[in-house]
Amino acid sequence: MDQAKKTITYFFLVLWALIVLFPFYWMVLTSVKSYGAYNSEYIPKFFTLSPTMQNYVDAFTSVPLGRYFLNTIVFTALTTAIMIVVITLAAFAFARLDFRGRNGAFVLFLSLMMIPNELVIITNFVTITNLDMRNTFQGLILPSVTSVFYIYLLKENFEQVPDSLYKAAKVDGTSDMKYLLKVLVPMSKPTLITVTILKIIECWNSYVWPRLITDDEAYYLVSNGIQEIRENGFGRENIPAMMAAVVAISLPLIVLFLLFHKKIMAGVSRGGTKG
Amino acid sequence: MKVVLRNLTKKFPSRDKKNKKDVVAVDNFDFEIPDGKLIGLLGPSGCGKSTTLNLISGLEKPTDGQIFFGEDDVTRLAPEHRGIGLVFQNYALYPHLTVKQNILFPLENLKGKEKLSKGEMLEKAMEAAKLVQIDELMERKPGELSGGQQQRVAIARALVKRPRVLLLDEPLSNLDARLRLQTREEIKRIQKETGITTIFVTHDQEEAMSISDIIVVMKDGAVQQIGRPQEVYDNPANLFVAKFLGTPPINVFEGQVRDGRLYLGPDAVLPVRGAVQGAVYAGIRPEGFLLRKDGAFCCNLNGVEVMGRDISVVFAHKASLSPTIRAIVGAENLAEISADAGQVRFDLKPDKVILFDKKTGERIRVDMKA
Amino acid sequence: MSNEKMKESRPDDAAKARKVPGDNGRGALHGRKALHGRRAFQGVSWKSGFGSLKGWLYLLPAILFLGVFMVYPLIDVFVYSFEEGYNSASQTYLGTGTYNYSYVLHDPYFLQALKNTFLLVIITVPLSTGIALLISVGLNSIGPLRNLLQTIYFLPYVTNTLAVGLVFMILFKKTPYSDGLVNLLIQWFGGESVDFIDGPYWAKMFVLCFYTIWVVMPFKILILTSALSSVNQDYYRAARVDGTSKFRIFRRITLPMISPMIFYLVITGFIGAFKAYSDAVALFGTDLNGAGMNTIVGYVYDMLYGDSGGYPSYASAAAIILFAIVLTITCINLLISKKNVHY
Fold this sequence. Notes:
CATH class of the domain at 106-340 in chain C: Mainly Alpha
Largest sheet of chain C: 2 strands, antiparallel
Largest sheet of chain A: none
Number of helices of chain A: 14
Oligomer: heterotrimer
Order of helices and strands of chain A: HHHHHHHHHHHHHH
Strand order of the largest sheet of chain C: 1-2
Shape of chain C: globular
CATH topology of the domain at 106-340 in chain C: MetI-like fold
Strand content of chain A: under 5%
Radius of gyration of chain A: 24 Å
Helix content of chain C: 55-70%
CATH class of the domain at 66-233 in chain A: Mainly Alpha
């Protein structure tokens, strides 16, 4: 009886794993099938004996996929870097500094966590348009360099550091900035790394804002790029080349995930949500 | 460096919304700490001893009063300019830095004229490490050290700048019993060796008495008594001090002084000479009891606890404020107590019996020689 | 929290801190982690005027960005939504009133989007939460492969929704060359093939729901498995000593213990599903109105920008309607959870 139960459990668990993995398998498989072979398979084959890299060459030559990549890397790196600076300073102010209005400011910050992006994106679109920052990196980056949630997360982390360390530093004449950089930041490294990774994932996958703010291909990110490819690139039917692009786009994050899956999962279970 | 506290007062705004009165953490502290002494600030939690330490360190600003180091008025000086070393209960070592980096940290903050070269810094760090005997551990991280070793590192870090005053905040509370004994001797040795005026805060009266040159007993922000440990123990200024010092604690009785005699319940235990009449509190130290078959003080015996060198006699008396009374007598007396008797009689040592005013708790000085 | 109160009342601590109100909000917002309050150190404000300024200086970048891109837009969106006849070229409007709302509420595209979104929410939230719970319980009961499976299950979280959506599209799509893998499976089981991408409404809705569930599962499984594994084993040991059956243990011990997390998932699930958009774009392309598969968020963006765009007022009205719906549903959820979450 117990054995049967176990078998059934494993069966369903493995089934779901297959459902999860199958799209990944299918995109890799399709991406190495030749255009001709793919279109001649009325019944798609589950493997191929003559894998080709031609689709990857096509993906990077007939559409500006490399450009999309570069844009996304620049966008992701800058957004993440600026955000880390902004949230570290803010979290430090909330966690350690004493100033009039701090508590009120913190409550205000927290209440901003409940504001959905959809509500503010309209005005932001108008603002960026009016500032003439459409199709610029500034326009892409600036609205997403603060995260109240990460400020909150980091503030909490900073507060785990005992008061006495701050007092000790003060007695030794350490400035607040030095204390932040030399003591708090190194001690909060795990959290900072987690936040960085989660932000990178978010940036890499962001679609809505870039779509609104860029209509010049030279500023497309990968998400917009793939949508563009789907609607206008390769001709609609070159599925293998499209899948090659999809693989190329997905690969960096999957590598990141394989390297850091423990950190990512721990970070997300502490309060990340998708979207 | 002598440290002078003049009318030092610290008030905090009340956190109680209904009662807006300020909380007085330190009330008019007036004291001159002589140069090169080890001072124990002692009191129950909430008595203001930690606040006093923070005021001396400069981490908090006094509401009123002044602090002098020698002749310098440091009241308005920021902590780093006072020349102090501070050691915390939880050591406050930077966990991501090695022992060496921790000790170097204060030196790296020096600016301008005081700035040291790398070599000088290392030399100073090594010197401090040697003083506390951790020079073997310089490359370790605090997480790899025992509590006692961490405490030594913290002391080395506090000493590396050659402070004028060393402040220790509950330095032994996080150590286990055996290490505590060892570390407190260590602190005493380091203090003697460096001659730095040292102030340390503790709630453990045994700890304070054992290593301090002078102890300061505090309660509710107010200084109760200042003096050499033995002096304070023998001549407490009030009932609070008497109760706070000594293990086992002093036994307190409702007493009556009539016709030149001190009565505890029906028993007239000691003659009293002095202008005192009526109800008093009588405190009797555990070592103040003498077992006598015909003693004046008759009690109900509860039991005897053997402690080796001494025995502790546990008994009850209806004049006592607590249900059990403890007396410490030499182990040779064990044979004299028959457990079935149910009763035990004592005579009292006059210098171990202390009278207090029933209303104010203040000491009543009387002569009780038999 | 009671622990905290106890500490607060120790007068010794008066020296160290005044109360930080954030402490309370923190517990309420993220009850998942036991927090022991550490208060900010308050002593070193010698030059209190300057000290005050310094704090704000550290906050300045965050306040600037949040002010410009969050607080101002929040007010502005309400203003927009009541400005009638707004012209984005000249930035003028004719008057104020509720016309934008009435326009949006009578727009067939919006009604279609509303219907799509509600269907999506009603189908995917219970289904994904239920399946995630089953999977998590299963995962929790096995030894070998557990970590591997857990990692695999999380994979969709880090993938680009748009990119993987394309894979789903080709799996479900019917083309002249091939019926697509899913249709072949259906035929193999003796069913009738159907175009899930350009075909009948129910088929398109099915793919959308399927993909949405695929996308949201990782988060739910992760949260539930960690909730399950944090239930103290002693409860199970005690129950087993009492001879409680496994099902009863699950019903009476496990479920109540993880009920706060389940409700957390339901609430965030509702909010997330109401904001669905990119999954639909991935499957059906950017012309969602044309495909009849638009969502409320999609409607907002379409009103703002694109071929049918240029109407920020309508977009604002639609966004506020969406926000009102989400707020209402969340409040209802919270009320229900208050009654049903057992601790």
